[in-house]
Design goal:
single chain, 448 residues, mainly beta, five-stranded mixed beta sheet
């Protein structure tokens, strides 16, 4: 396909507020000893060292862990651990790497100098690798310098790139008057445009256009463009190049044009419901000294936005938080030791406002948010409170049997068909960690 270049301008008309105002929250009382039955437990693979050779017969596993896992740290470095064979391998050395939202692939970029040595040309090289097996899917030139990935396609390999620089203090995004957007997959550049204004790709829409590309790309527009303090959601049509307003997730007859102030902290995808949840910390007036509050921005990949107020008991306006999705439930945890949950279908149920239906205190306060991993039956909570265990809560908030960990301070948890996999600073439950100068503390685990 021949790449197309289009210039788009914003379209502004009727506005409807969707709720990211920081005023009010669900009135839910914390529960320290929830009633009901205990949640189902999942066996925890023991801490092990790498074996010298894979076990005979079948696919190699260690302590119930899959043979190959992918991990990512907070800096974006992605690595593979071949539990039964070769140990730890970095996916891309000296590349800037990001893992896709669904954990199925990573995309890495690096800057390449070519041409005349006295006046070299800079270009961005992008490479895709399948996860967790590490197969190379493709490597291409984007034809532009200083591009970085900001959005990945769910169920595909399309990635949105834009030019990113670090924002100044006191603003929520980098200043820019125009925004380059390049869409590419391992086969090459598929679409590109330059938009007037300060835009950053957030997510691809779920509907496909006639050319096989997603019909829509959701954008965050930052303003004022030269010193951003607020953002609002916009929808870029990849069929026409026009930028328009999103729909109201709970009332698709209305469009939304709300000014929001906040910095993204955590993000999680509900592929089953087609919703992307992002936890934000913001201020009432958009300034660093304004009254703080927290909210969860909900993006419907079928075209719709809504904001969920966070219960004040979680104290997320001042403390770190984490998100997880399991089955039909969204789980939110706070460094104050509490976990809250709500029904995901209730978000689009117009008969009543969506609310958190329980909050449970599971641990003492800590400096960081608990590591979370959810399945259809409940959630595993890994607090960093000095105790070496995972706490189990079922979908109703009832406490299940805790699982002992080899060490304290879990930073990443995931649930597989083989059990629960956990990592912390310098340790995992699925393989020993050698002295790796490229891997920081593991923040995410991708497993089959």
């Amino acid at each position: 396909m021949t790449p197309s270049t289009r210039r788009a301008t914003t379209v502004t008309f009727a506005l409807v507020v969707a709720g990211c105002t920081g005023s009010g929250a669900a009135d839910v009382a914390p529960t320290t000893e929830p009633g009901g039955g205990t949640g189902a437990t999942v066996p925890l693979p023991p801490a092990t060292e790498l074996p010298d050779a894979p076990p005979a017969g079948g696919e190699p596993t260690v302590g119930g862990a899959p043979a190959v896992l992918a991990v990512a740290d907070a800096d974006g470095d992605v690595g593979l651990v071949d539990v039964g064979r070769e140990g730890w391998v970095q996916v891309r050395r000296n590349w800037e790497t990001a893992m896709s939202l669904d954990g199925r692939y990573s995309v890495a970029t690096k800057q390449l100098l070519s041409g005349d040595p006295k006046a070299p040309t800079r270009e961005t090289i992008a490479a895709w690798d399948s996860l967790p097996d590490g197969r190379t899917l493709g490597e291409i030139s984007l034809g532009e310098p200083d591009l970085a990935p900001t959005a990945t396609q769910v169920g595909g390999h399309l990635v949105a790139f834009t030019d990113l620089v670090e924002p100044d203090d006191g603003v929520i995004a980098a200043p820019r008057a125009q925004s380059r957007i390049v869409l590419a997959d391992p086969d090459g550049v598929r679409w590109q445009a330059e938009l007037d204004g300060n835009f950053e790709p957030e997510a691809f829409g779920g509907r496909r256009g006639a050319d096989g590309l997603p019909a829509q790309l959701f954008l965050l527009e930052y303003f004022p463009a030269a010193a951003p303090r607020f953002y609002r959601v916009r929808v870029l049509s990849l069929e026409t190049g026009e930028v328009s307003l999103p729909l109201n997730l709970r009332d698709k007859t209305q469009q939304v044009d709300e000014r929001m102030a906040g910095i993204s902290r955590r993000q999680v995808l509900s592929g089953e419901h087609g919703l992307l949840f992002t936890l934000y910390r913001g201020t009432m007036d958009g300034t660093p000294d304004g009254e703080p509050y927290a909210f969860i921005h909900v993006l419907d990949l079928a075209d719709g936005v809504w904001c969920l107020d966070v219960p004040p008991e979680l104290e997320l306006e001042r403390l770190p938080g984490s998100l997880a999705v399991g089955g039909d439930r969204l789980y939110v945890a706070s460094a104050n030791g509490s976990v809250g949950s709500m029904s995901i279908p209730s978000i689009s149920d117009v008969r009543s406002p969506p609310e958190f239906d329980w909050i449970v205190e599971v641990s003492r306060s800590a400096e960081v948010a608990p590591a979370l991993a959810a399945d259809a039956d409940g959630v595993w909570v890994g607090p960093d409170d000095g105790a070496s265990r995972l706490v189990r809560l079922n979908a109703s908030g009832a406490r299940g049997e805790p699982l002992a960990l080899p060490r304290s301070g879990p930073t990443a948890v995931t649930v597989t068909g083989s059990g629960v996999l956990v990592a912390g600073p310098g340790w995992t439950t699925f393989a020993g960690i050698p002295d790796l100068d490229w891997l920081d503390t593991i923040a995410r685990i991708s497993a089959p």
